[in-house]
Structure formats: structure tokens, C-alpha cells
Write a structure and sequence with these properties.
Layout lengths: L16 H9 L4 E5 L3 E2 L10 E2 L3 H6 L3 H14 L3 E5 L9 H9 L4 E6 L6 H9 L4 E5 L5 H8 L4 H13 L4 E6 L8 H11 L5 E3 L10 H10 L3 H10 L1 H12 L21 E4 L4 E3 L11 E2 L5 H13 L6 H4 L15 H8 L7 H14 L12
Parallel strand pairs: 1-4, 1-9, 2-3, 4-5, 5-6, 6-7, 7-8
Antiparallel strand pairs: 9-10, 10-11
Bound molecules: iron/sulfur cluster (SF4) (2 copies).
């Protein structure tokens, strides 16, 4: 185990030894809380967003009191780090109260925001109670490319918001999601983000499907996905990502999975969980299958964490299309396949995702250090 220092010489929370220790005991350390599904943008690739004034979404959103109660239960269970996300969390008029409440419980707090709604009040709040991190996505460096992704005229307000946060000396991480609409702008996006802050720039080139399974929106997401070749080319352009993937490839031969029928091979439900915008307990933000969620309006977080999660984690698949492919695959570290994504794509936790499979194999091929074929467990 080693401690990872970031480019600003701070220790990354994710690399603290406490995570390794906690894995053995299944302790809740971090939690994602989606404060809303609504957003003032309408990003073409977004897996969650509803319109800013969507009445149905507003009616189902957790109230301030419910958020306070869940936070208290999470702190009782030992949580150290809470990420406030959405949708766009700053859309909530009570965001400041929520943030202050969570922050003053003594946990690290991170915020994901599109930055276009940042006000002087938010700046004062973040300066008074500094967050661990504020993460902002940059989708384009020109108004045209930004709009081709977010489908709203928020370029100016986004740039103003980013500059306000940075000028206030707040810990801002800039990141991106790359798709067909902004692929041509990747170099400029990366340069822009790196010029604004020394914190690690990272991007996601693998789009996931909608949590609400909306077929029309899913069609748009599918049309925005990069080809495996485009993704492998982007990986190589990013020096830090290159190093991480290179290491991942080096580890491939050592990472042959033993439990062919096990579905959950990640940290979801082991040290982390997520609270959906409508109060559903989830093992992670992407796992929305109704058989894998529990309503926190009628159950406690302790019931969800201590009794519900362990049952979900026991799920297995004995179907040969799983046990002979993803169940025993050595490419897990460089593949976006997981039961949550499989469910979103196929309606089954053990479903195959040919696109993710092609991306992983293209990544492996692009590094040319390993044979193209041996992604199945050798017998
Ligand atoms: S800004 Fe974020 S939450 Fe809003 S629509 Fe875009 S991706 Fe979704
Ligand atoms: S590379 Fe293919 S077989 Fe391996 S985990 Fe990914 S989707 Fe499954």
C-alpha cells in the first residue's frame, strides 16, 4: 500500500491507508448524496438530469429535514466523507443550509457542480466552511462547443463561476466528459483545465445510459459515444492517465479473477454507498435496479447498510455468458463493465456490454504489451 500525493502535494483521500484497513471490516467511509435530479443544463450525455422546474422531480426530492436525518445516521455509522452531487445541487434554494449542516457534522465534504449558478453567497459559504473539493466539468472552451453538449446558453455563467471559485482560493478540480460533440476540443479543454488549476485534470470517455432508462435520451447518449479507437487515442494523450492505464495493463496478468460467479467486485457497498435524489439507498450512484435499492423514507440507513447491502453483495450469476466472460476477465481494471452498467444497458446485472468489451480490448491492444486475446481466465 502506498500513499498517493496529488500534483498540489496534498494526500489524496482515496489513497489513505484507512481504506485498505476498512475493506477488511466493511465500514461505511464515504457516501454520495444526490440532492436533486434537476439541472439548469440539459447535457446530451447526462444520465440523470430532469428540467430545472420538473414538478415530479421536485415532489420526490428529499427535504432538508430528511437530508439532515440521513446525514446524522451516516455519521453514526462512521462516515468520513460525503459528496454532494446531483443533477445540479446549487439549484436547490436550501443548498447553503444543507451544506452547512453536513459540513458542521465534522466530515469532509465535496461538491460536484456545473458552476453556472455560483453566487457571492456560495463563495462566502465555501470560504467559511471550506470543502475538501469542488469538482466542475468543462465541456467546451468555446460557447459553440459548450452549447453542443449542455444545450443551454450557460458558457459565460460557467466560466464566470469557475473564475469566482478559483479567485476565492477554493480547491477546484476541473474535469470533463468527452463525447462526439466535444471530441475535437479535447486538447483545448485539457490545456484550459490544466492552466486554471494544478489539481489533477481527469476526463471520462465512457458514457453511461440513463438512470430513468428513457429510450429517447438513451438514443442520444449512444450516438455520442466515442469509438474504442478514439478512446484509446485519448488515453494516450493524457500523461497521468497513460501512466495509470499502463500500470493497469502491467497488472493484468496478476489479476485473474477467482470468483467467476461473483457479480460485485468493486468497493460499492463495502466502504461506500449512495443516496439517490428521491431518497433511495443505492450501493453506488449507477446501481438503480429497483431490486437493489431501498427507500430511506421508510427504512433507516443502518438497516440499509447493515442488512440490505450484504444481501445484494452476495448476488451471483451462474450463467455461462457471465462466468466465462466478465466473471473471469482479466481486463476489469481497464473496463467500464460492472453489474450497475450491465443493468442499465441490458436490464440484467450479469448482461454483456459489447461496446465496453470492445473499448477494453482496444485499450489493451493500444498498449501492445499484452496479447490481444487472453482476456478470459486460462484453464
Ligand atoms: S451539468 Fe451535469 S447534471 Fe447538469 S445536465 Fe450536465 S451532466 Fe447533467
Ligand atoms: S473486457 Fe469484456 S469480458 Fe472483460 S470485463 Fe470488460 S466487458 Fe467483460
Amino acid at each position: 500500500m502506498y500513499i498517493m500525493y496529488r500534483s498540489d502535494n496534498k494526500i489524496s483521500i482515496a489513497s489513505l491507508p484507512v481504506w485498505e484497513r476498512a475493506k477488511e471490516k466493511r465500514v461505511l467511509l464515504s457516501m454520495v448524496m444526490d440532492l436533486t435530479a434537476r439541472c439548469n443544463n440539459d447535457c446530451v450525455h447526462c444520465y440523470i438530469n430532469r428540467p430545472a422546474h420538473d414538478r415530479q422531480a421536485l415532489e420526490k426530492e428529499l427535504t432538508l429535514d430528511e437530508i439532515k436525518a440521513i446525514t446524522a445516521q451516516a455519521v453514526d455509522l462512521g462516515v468520513l466523507w460525503i459528496l454532494l452531487s446531483g443533477g445540479e445541487p446549487l439549484l436547490r434554494p436550501d443548498f447553503s443550509e444543507i451544506y452547512t449542516h453536513v459540513k458542521t457534522r465534522g466530515v469532509f465534504v465535496s461538491v460536484f457542480t456545473n458552476a453556472s449558478l455560483v453566487t457571492d453567497e456560495h463563495i462566502r459559504l465555501f470560504k467559511k466552511y471550506p470543502p475538501r473539493e469542488i469538482e466542475v466539468s468543462v465541456y467546451g472552451t468555446t460557447p459553440e462547443i459548450h452549447k453542443s453538449v449542455v444545450r443551454k446558453n450557460t458558457f459565460e455563467s460557467t466560466m464566470t463561476g469557475i473564475n469566482r471559485l478559483l479567485s476565492a482560493g477554493l480547491p477546484v478540480t476541473l474535469k470533463s466528459t468527452i463525447m462526439q460533440a466535444n471530441f475535437s476540443d479535447f486538447d483545448d479543454i485539457a490545456n484550459f483545465c490544466r492552466s486554471k488549476t494544478s489539481r489533477l485534470f481527469r476526463f471520462d470517455p465512457c458514457l453511461q445510459l440513463r438512470a430513468d432508462r428513457d429510450p429517447h435520451r438513451n438514443k442520444s447518449i449512444l450516438s455520442q459515444r466515442l469509438t474504442p479507437e478514439q478512446i484509446a487515442a485519448l488515453d494516450k494523450k493524457d500523461p497521468q492517465r497513460y501512466k495509470a492505464l499502463e500500470q493497469g495493463c502491467k497488472n493484468l496478468d496478476n489479476s485473474i479473477e477467482q470468483d467467476a460467479d461473483t457479480l460485485f467486485k468493486c468497493q460499492a457497498g463495502i466502504n461506500t454507498c449512495a443516496i439517490g435524489w428521491d431518497g433511495k439507498y443505492q450501493l453506488c450512484p449507477s446501481l438503480v435496479n429497483r431490486n437493489c435499492t431501498l427507500d430511506l423514507k421508510t427504512h433507516t440507513l443502518a438497516q440499509a447498510w447493515n442488512h440490505f447491502s450484504p444481501e445484494i453483495l452476495k448476488r451471483t450469476s451462474v450463467r455461462s455468458h457471465y462466468t466465462e466472460t466478465c466473471g473471469t476477465c482479466t481486463l476489469h481494471d481497464i473496463c467500464a463493465w460492472c453489474p450497475a452498467h450491465a443493468d442499465l444497458e441490458t436490464g440484467q446485472l450479469d448482461g454483456c456490454i459489447p461496446y465496453f468489451c470492445k473499448v477494453a480490448k482496444e485499450r489493451q491492444r493500444a498498449w501492445k504489451k499484452f496479447d490481444y486475446v487472453p482476456y478470459l481466465k486460462r484453464t
